Amino acid sequence: MSRAIENLEAAQRRAMAGRPKIGGFPYLAETLRRAGVTRNIWNLPSAQSLFITNDGSVVMQGTPLVSGTVDVPPFDREALITALRTDQAGNSTFPEFLAASWRAGVLRYDVDFSARTVSYYGSNGEEYVEKYPAVEVE
Predict the structure, then answer these.
(1) Which of 31, 59, 91, 118 counts the highest number of beta carbons within 10 A?
(2) At 81, is the secondary structure helix, strand, or coil?
(3) Which of 97, 10, 18, 92 is nearest to 55 (CA)?
(4) Alpha carbon distance 105, 121 (integer Å)
């Protein structure tokens, strides 16, 4: 196992152990940032996640959201914001958030841990960017 994988997995374990149910993403993001993760790019519907770290890049393959040939949903900014607020309130699981984002037309999203932003992209160049707050982690 590479240093990048070991470091990433250790940071994820730390983050999940201390992450609050409500507003947990900023805590996770700050824990990863402190561990040297600079970006995280999620590709939907494949559920593939690329972590760019100071120790190298790591890809994680999740369970795809769809199979076969499917239509890409149209980008729906309001549906995406609803999915975000539901997740931020602690009222959805991460897989439910991914599925809701896909239904809102998100093909990928890109987390920039230095800028504390998440950019969501649709198939026709649509983009929605949201900043997340800085938090203290132990």
Answers:
(1) 31
(2) helix
(3) 10
(4) 8
